[in-house]
Amino acid sequence: MNAVEVTGVSKVFRVAKGAEVVALDSVSLSVVPGEFVSLIGPSGCGKSTLLRLIADLDQPTAGEVLVFGKSARQARIDQDYGIAFQQAGLLPWRTVTGNIELPLELHGVGKAARRARAQDLLALVGLSDFADRYPDQLSGGMQQRVAIARSLAESPELLLMDEPFGALDEMTRERMQTELVRICAETGAAVVFVTHSIPEAVYLSSRVVVMSPRPGRIQEVVTVGLGSAGTRDDALREDAAFFASVKAVREALHGDAVHEKAPHSVRGVETR
Amino acid sequence: MTAAVPSLSLRAKSTNARVRPYVFGALGLVLLALVWEAYKAVGPAEGVMIGDITVLPRTSDIAMPHLWTMWERLGEPVTSAAGSPALWFAVLQAAGFTLGIAAVGWLVGVSVGMLLAIVMQRFRTAESALLPWVVLSQTVPLIAIAPLVKRWGAQIEVGAFDWEDWMSVALIASYLAFFPVSIGALRGLGSPDKAHLELMHSYAAGWWSTLLRLRLPASVPYLLPALRLAAANAVIGTVVAEVSIGLRGGVGRMMVEFASAASGDPAKPWAPIFGAVLVGLIAAGVVIVLGLFVGRYRRGEVSA
């Protein structure tokens, strides 16, 4: 059974005065358990929308979204996924531990078990010394690590991440990527990861889904053969295979876009 | 390591900032006393008039007794009758009585205000239906509703329970107190970010859990000023309602009683006024102390 099964999904947003925006147009995608899949594409290609449909934060206009064989809604109610956004979204009045415990608390996990789980997760994201700090005492990178720990709290088989490192500086970002690869190897969860960054997508993923805008469609799926998550490290960033995959994703992103634009006008390309 | 440095300097700064309001507060009091005595010393005995209108009061001892006269008067007995208690003691007793009623009014007002806000937050139709009435309620003058409340109260009789006049006063106080709470709480309950709400949704948290774990904690920064306003309103409501309902025992009634003695004993009516000020200060102080206990819910205020 697939972790995520998206079949012929469309999403149309109604904007002011009856106008419609087609955010997704008959998109189909499967993610197998344990697989790391990135969604990449320019703004407005519907990658975040697709993630939100899987998370049941929005409902598709047409088509079907299954998560572990259940409807997205049922999967959300059963807490089959953990989620992290671009903003860490920690509750400012809760300590780091309190924030990680929030989902467990909401689902009736006992106090001792919550404390133990939070300690494990803090160790996993390397923040054991900051357990009793408040979010405003942490750096952006630390806050994001807490958010990731929180998304892992209920040991989900699926992680949904919407540009979780988008607001971080480049150095913090690379360190977080390395950590995420390690965490995924340790937890064995499948990941759907939305990003703007080609190197990030290639470094993290087994497959990169390249999307195109207006209407949002899947342009191409690039399979990245860089080995299993457990064997990936920083050396990979300078590996020839890494650059080859970056090139493949870049061509998928821009190649066809140039093709499509060319017949309309040359100026359109120039201003890009 | 690096985080310790800013937090240290922050603490040093906040000690300074914590003392400053008290210093300025004390300075303000001294200034007020100086202005009073200075005007009394140099102002014309008949007051400052523009045409027929008095814009500044007469400076006679009857209209403006010396501050030390007021102070000395507090130590003397209320009346010349034998066994009469000291004025300060009578005022303190009355202030305690008023404070008690104001506290009941505050509690009732805060509960009603919170409840209204929660209902309005939960049901949009309730908000459109209730909010105009909540605002309108505050335009009704206290003097108009006091006799009504008293009359309606008099008709309530359930078993051994009898509606008493002090309850009417507390009810009127709560009528003034609920308003800022309902408005402040409504804003506070609606203040969480979309991201936080979606997070709770992704946890399949129901409305009640979201209220308890997200909306209520997030509303604390909005609630505290509202509670402070409610405390001030409750005190004013109590004092005014004591007068209009004619309830004995509090500073409100005492002001009216002592005012009739003003010509012969000009310092006496000032005593219950000080009593009312004291009640207001205590009420505001209690809310500030309350705020200290919920400090962690106000972190957003600091970092933002």
TrEMBL record, chain A:
GO terms for molecular function: ATP binding; ATP hydrolysis activity. InterPro entries: AAA+_ATPase, ABC_transporter-like_ATP-bd, ABC_transporter-like_CS, ABC_transporter_ATP-bind, P-loop_NTPase. The keyword Transport applies. This is NitT/TauT family transport system ATP-binding protein. Residues 4-238 form the ABC transporter domain. The keyword GTP-binding does not apply. PANTHER family: ALIPHATIC SULFONATES IMPORT ATP-BINDING PROTEIN SSUB, TAURINE IMPORT ATP-BINDING PROTEIN-RELATED.
From TrEMBL, chain B:
GO terms for cellular component: plasma membrane. The chain crosses the membrane at residues 21-39, 86-118, 130-149, 169-190, 222-245, 273-294. InterPro entries: MetI-like, MetI-like_sf. The keyword Transport applies. It is found in: Cell membrane. Belongs to the binding-protein-dependent transport system permease family. This is NitT/TauT family transport system permease protein. It is a multi-pass membrane protein. One of its GO terms (biological process) is transmembrane transport. Keywords: Cell membrane, Membrane, Transmembrane, Transmembrane helix, Transport. Residues 95-291 form the ABC transmembrane type-1 domain. Pfam families: BPD_transp_1 (PF00528).
